[in-house]
TrEMBL record:
Family stated for the protein in its record: Belongs to the radical SAM superfamily. MoaA family.
Reaction(s) this enzyme catalyzes, per UniProt: GTP + AH2 + S-adenosyl-L-methionine = (8S)-3',8-cyclo-7,8-dihydroguanosine 5'-triphosphate + 5'-deoxyadenosine + L-methionine + A + H(+)
UniProt xrefs under Gene3D superfamilies: Aldolase class I
Name under which the protein is recorded: GTP 3',8-cyclase
Reported function: Catalyzes the cyclization of GTP to (8S)-3',8-cyclo-7,8-dihydroguanosine 5'-triphosphate.
Cofactor: [4Fe-4S] cluster
UniProt keyword list: 4Fe-4S, GTP-binding, Iron, Iron-sulfur, Lyase, Metal-binding, Molybdenum cofactor biosynthesis, Nucleotide-binding, S-adenosyl-L-methionine
Residues that coordinate or bind [4Fe-4S] cluster 2: C258, C261, C275
Cofactor note: Binds 2 [4Fe-4S] clusters. Binds 1 [4Fe-4S] cluster coordinated with 3 cysteines and an exchangeable S-adenosyl-L-methionine and 1 [4Fe-4S] cluster coordinated with 3 cysteines and the GTP-derived substrate.
Signal peptide start and end residues: none
List of residues binding S-adenosyl-L-methionine: Y30, G71, S122, M193
EC number in record: 4.1.99.22
Source species: Gordoniibacillus kamchatkensis
Segments forming domain Radical SAM core: 8-223
Amino acid sequence: MQKQLTDRFGRVHDYLRISVTDRCNLRCVYCMPEEGMEFEPEERLLTFDEIAETVRVLAGYGVRKLRLTGGEPLVRKNIEQLVEKLGAIPGIEDIALTTNGIFFAAKAERLRAAGLTRINISLDSLRADRFRLITRGGDIRRVLESVEAAYRVGLDPIKLNVVLMKGLNDDEIDDFLKLTLERRVQVRFIEYMPIGHNDDGWRSKYVPLSTVLERCEANGWHPQPSGEVYGNGPSQNFKLEGAPGGFGLIHPVSDHFCETCNRLRLTADGNIKPCLYWSDEFNVRRYIGDDEALADMFFRALDVKPQNHEMAQALAGESQTHIPTVRRMSQIGG
């Protein structure tokens, strides 16, 4: 194998998050404004062949894990064809999908057959009315059908992403924890991040994830650290006694995980983002087809990747050393 994708701080990158579209069928309050979004025209999106060519080159430098994101990746037509192309690339061991779950049930079997190995489904509330409020119109029944479809086709682990927001869903922590006592599911509590927000409104909704452990103690549950979850990334994982499932804490603000960051991001319009939070981007589309030049662009991106994202400073209202991105989460790919 050629040299690995290593940055200035010795972090080896074997994981690529690929946004296939900036469009979404929902308008979740932490991800997109209700209106006024301008989307990339289809001709500016990377084609499936361009994505596969990029991954083929990166696989030669040690990339093994992929995650397809958006926007909502399932609004991209024939996404299973991309999964199949990526799965055929030597060296790729894992292809995951992050989805809002509205369209997944209808595509579950085709995606699994194409080579999908894991799934994360966004589910920020277990209450239909509240789910509709957070997503601005989503139907929770379709998401729950997709969870069942994921079980049916044998995806494991099934992860549910829960962005905690003060006054919106932080009173449902107990309900999500109880889910892990009932089913083999991994609930991942995620801190609200200041991605793409040009005001300070996100602070009023921010909930530190220490709250989850406090709820465990209040209920007499004693969570134990768990290292069983494959592909746990930045998640700090736990299990309740006797639970078939588990839960994870992803706290980029209160306890950033940058020292172990192993991921790069490829946006739908062909830009490398070395860090989710900062504005640095490198367009690679024009280099696809020139393996050496394409790889060089990824190494250049790694050369400017900062040691950490400084979201804690953003929470405290302190000055930062880099320029935060103005792109919304849906435009980056999370």
